[in-house]
Specification:
There is one protein chain. By secondary structure, the protein is α/β, with parallel strands linked by helices. The termini are far apart. The chain has a six-stranded parallel beta sheet with strand order 3-2-4-5-1-6, sandwiched between helices. Helices cover about 40% and strands about 15% of the residues. It has a single domain (about 15-165), classed as 3-Layer(aba) Sandwich (Rossmann fold), CATH 3.40.50.300. Bound molecules: adenosine-5'-triphosphate and magnesium ion (MG). One of its GO terms (biological process) is cobalamin biosynthetic process. One of its GO terms (molecular function) is ATP binding.
Length: about 180
């Protein structure tokens, strides 16, 4: 194989990208990535775990971004880490089945699994299954996994890991849940 050919094949290999950490900016970063990708002609699918609210980004995508398809698997309420409700477990499983189906379909150039790291940390989805999905993804697919608590094994197999670290958060000054900022 010539140099040009191998460069081309490296360029075409899709990436596994992990956005984690305890600061604010993971999901919004993933949406920024999605926006950039659709601008370059990608078909993007974003699956949200443990979330059901009509977030601003979901409303904006419906309105302006036909090449970004969003599925939500969750309720608009908190999942308890040590005691998730059966419905939370069921929705996470359904979301993960959808993720596998979407990835296997070959319909998308980029798939974003938003908050999947949290779903794994809460034991809603087995870590091994997520690792296997990432390792066996179609070669050209870009796969983005977000959420705090990304596991060590996921960090190991990823091509990119970014950690958003809280330095300051306006919550601590009593400024809570603003439209356009939090949702
Ligand atoms: P965003 O969706 O704004 O990009 P995120 O995906 O990094 O945030 P999550 O961990 O998914 O954050 O939490 C969802 C919401 O919880 C955020 O909208 C946010 O403002 C709030 N949040 C995130 N990090 C913190 C923090 N360190 N302290 C308090 N609230 C936080
Ligand atoms: Mg998030």
């Amino acid at each position: 194989m010539g140099v040009m050919e191998s460069t081309a094949s490296i360029a075409k290999r899709g990436l596994v990208m992990v956005i984690t950490g305890n600061g604010k900016g993971k999901t919004t970063s993933a949406f920024g990535q999605a926006l950039r990708a659709t601008g370059q002609g990608y078909q993007v699918c974003l699956i949200q775990f443990m979330k059901g609210r009509k977030y601003g980004e979901v409303l904006a995508a419906e309105k302006y971004l036909p090449d970004l398809k969003i599925y939500q698997f969750g309720l608009d309420s908190f999942v308890m880490r040590n005691n998730p409700a059966p419905v939370d477990v069921e929705l996470a499983r359904q979301g993960f089945e959808k993720a596998k189906e979407i990835i296997a379909s070959g319909q998308y150039n980029m798939v974003i699994l938003d908050e999947i790291n949290v779903a794994v940390d809460f034991n809603l989805i087995p870590e091994e299954e997520v690792l296997s999905l990432a390792k066996n993804k179609p070669v050209e697919l870009d796969l983005v996994l977000t959420g705090r608590y990304a596991s060590d094994k996921l960090r190991e197999i990823a091509d990119l890991v970014s950690e958003v670290t809280e330095i300051k958060h306006h919550y601590n000054a009593g400024i809570k849940d603003r439209a356009g900022i939090e949702y």
